[in-house]
Amino acid sequence: MSPSADEQNDPWLEPGQNCWRVETAGRFAVLMENAAYFDALRSALGKARRSVVLLGWQFDPRTRLDPASPPNDHQAQIGHQLRMLVKARPELDIRLLIWKSPLVIAASQGFFPHRAQGWFRKRMVEFRLDRPGPIGACHHQKVVIIDDAVAFCGGGDIATDRWDSIEHLDGDPRRCQPSGLIPSPRHEIMCVMDGPAARALGDLGRERWFRSTSERTVPDDVDSDPWPDGVEPDLLNTPVGIARTEPAWAGRSEVRENEHLHLDAIRKARRLIYLENQYFTSPRIAAALAARLAEPDSPEVVLVSTGASPSWFDQITMDTARSEVLFRLEQADSNNRFYAFAPYTKGGERIIVHAKVSIYDDEVVRIGSTNLNNRSFGFDTECDVAAAPTTEEGRAAIRRFRHRTIGHWIGVNTEEFAAAEALVGTVGEAICRFDTGRMQTLGAAPPSAFERFIAEFQLGDPTSPSDAFRPWKRRSPSQRNQPPRISA
Predict the structure, then answer these.
(1) Is there a contact between 25 and 225 (Cβ–Cβ < 8 Å)?
(2) 189 with 30: CB under 8 angstroms?
(3) How high is the pLDDT of residue 4?
(4) Bridge partners, 239 (sequence order)
(5) Taking the model in full, what pTM does it have?
């Protein structure tokens, strides 16, 4: 059902319903690709005076924030730089809280972050590995807070295989890892903010630290400004909602703000739902989008995701389940308003879409760690931020970012894509008009019997601790070959 007039006037962000808190960011900037994020983080860390708190899914102290340095330059590695920061400023408190990943996953990461503890044996930097509680769950939040004055949030981890530029060059030597291997190109989005919004993320970090260590920390007040050099804000004095996911565990109630924020925004959108995400498997999101696509005046829905997941496990579980979702949306799309694409480099190599970005009607931009799958909505811990400017200037900034990110996929600049979209009238058709070969259609592939079984029971993708080992409780029957409806 299309949103009513009252629903259209409702705010996007509702604390206690689809977000934890709404606070103002004096400055808010989108950092596209980890080239921008690592550069901004390096600048902000150099300005830290009282505290640095880092929450992560992965952390590799060998990561070079400056890709111009040689792969084995120890002075350029973030682990060494953090130690030197504390040595130069003994009053600086640095705390890293990283998911304690199972050994089978840690093995694929060179046994980092577990080995990272050895970098900080002198306890100049507090490094802790954090268990999420439910067996099989993970801490997936990616947040950095500096002096409670500036905070970064998004989908990017600090690891040796995560840097890439906006060009996504084939075989870019700047992506070289300590092993000498050059990983696949990767798309990441982070954001940086200051003001009360940054302090609120500091509160989230303090609560995580207390739950993990039973140690209470207090907010910091500094006179200095750790805003990164060279980063121009996209938005000023903008409301920012913070949405979380936390599983029910140890007497604590579950938090599903991220899921509610997506569902509310899908219901409210009038013109456009633009999604960049690593995974696209949630039956609830699929049902909400299918309902909108079936409407006579449905909004346009545009998805950008990886052509094929890099790991065999994700290919079997997430890619198979995604095919079911794509099939469902293709069947519901009565007005040719659904488009799904996978990006590739100029040389035809797959680009890993690791970003988690959503834009609704160019009125709200959401950036965080939440994938569009079951576990990100109720099994893992997640953190997203959603900026909802109240001025037309702010909405124009969101539109410029959307044009920029779509243009970079195709290989054209922001203005070129904006002009094409204005001429054609729809985002998906405008993308299709650029025959560069870099945005290929992503469609539903017929599954084998084994793949259909995995997709129906959503193996590897629990919705909460209650069904983690009971896949029959979350069975989602395939939409393929459904019996025809019989009219009364």
Answers:
(1) no
(2) yes
(3) 57
(4) 24
(5) 0.95
